[in-house]
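tool_call: predict_structure(chain=1)
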Amino acid sequence: MLGSAEYARNMSAMRATQSGVNDQSARRRRQRPDGITPEEAEARWEQAKRDHMIPFHKMALLTMVATAPAFIMVFMYTEPDVGWHWAVKRPYPPIYDVEEPVILGQEQCAAFRKSTSDFRRAAPAGLPNSGAVYLWKLLRLNCLMPHECFERERGFDDDDDRITRLSNAENELQRKNCAPFLTQPPWGRHAFHGSPRILEKHRSVNRTEVLPVVVAKDPWTWFRSACRRPGGMRFKRGETCPSPVGPVRFEERPWESLGHLWGAWHASYMGTRSLVVRYEDLLWRPVETVGAVCSCVGGMTAPPRDFDPILDSYGRGLSRIGNLRRYGNESLRFSRLSPADVERLAAPELRRVAARLGYSVTNMS
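tool_result:
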C-alpha cells in the first residue's frame, strides 16, 4: 500500500495533468476557425476602432457644417406680409369663381345697426353639415365686438380652446354684464326661420338684437355631406347615397328629397332680416366674408396678417387645406347621380335659391 505522503503526491500530479488537459480543451473550443482566439479578436476590434474613430472635435465641426444651412433658413426667414396661415385669397375653382364673396341681405345692415344697441350679435344658422359652427368660430376669433364676455389675451388670433368651445359660449348666456357670441339663433341652429320654439338657454336673449347669418353649402356637395353624417335627418342611406333619391324627414316634417329640403329650408330665410353666406366663400375668402358679417353687426375684424382661418378646427380630423381639396373637386359634385337623380333633386325652390347664390344645378362635365 502507498503511504499517505506518496498518495497525496500522486493525487496532486493527477490533478495538475487533468487541469492542463482541460485548459487545452477550453482553448481549442474557444479558438475560431481562422486560429484567432476571442481575446485576440476583441483586441483587434478595439484597435480598429481607435484607428478609424473620428476625434470629437472633428465630429462637432462636421455637424456644425452640415446643420448650418438649416439654422440659417429658420432664423433668417421672414414671413411675407400676405396673411397669417394662408388666410389670403386663394384662387376659386371654376365652379365657384366670383369677383367677391356672395352675401345676401347686406342692404339691411345699416338699418339693423341703427335699430339695435351695442349688445347686438350675429347668430350662425344652417342645415346640418353646412358650416354654421365653423362660421361661429371664425367670428369669435376674428371679430372684436363691444361688451364681449371674454378677454383676448393674445389679440385677435387667440385660438385658445377656452374661446372656441361651444359649451363655454353657451354658459356665457347666463351672464348679465356682457353680450356673448351667439352659437345659434334663439329658435335653433337648424330650425326653419319663423320657428315658434325658443331654446331654454336662449330665453333671456333679446331676439330684436339678433341677426341670423345662414351658411349655405353647394347643394350637390351638401347631399354627400348629409349621406356621411345625416344629423337630425332621417332617410335611407346606401353605398351609392344620395342615389337613389328618396324621401327624407327633418324637423318632424316629410320632404320628397334632400333637394326639396335644401331649397325649402334656405327659402325660409330669403327676404327676412338675415344674411346668407356661402360655405365655399368661408374656405376661399375667409377674411372678406367674415369681415362683411362682422361689420354688419358693428364689429371690427382682424387685419389679414392676424386673421385666424382655423386650419385644424373643422371637426372629425379635417383641415382647411383638406376641405379646399375636397370641395374644389368639381367631379365629385354629381358623382353617383344619374341624370334622373339630378332632375329629381333639383326642386324648383332649390333652383331659385341656388341661382341667387351662384350655384350651378346642372352637370357641366
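agent: Residues 1-30 form one domain. Proceeding to next step.
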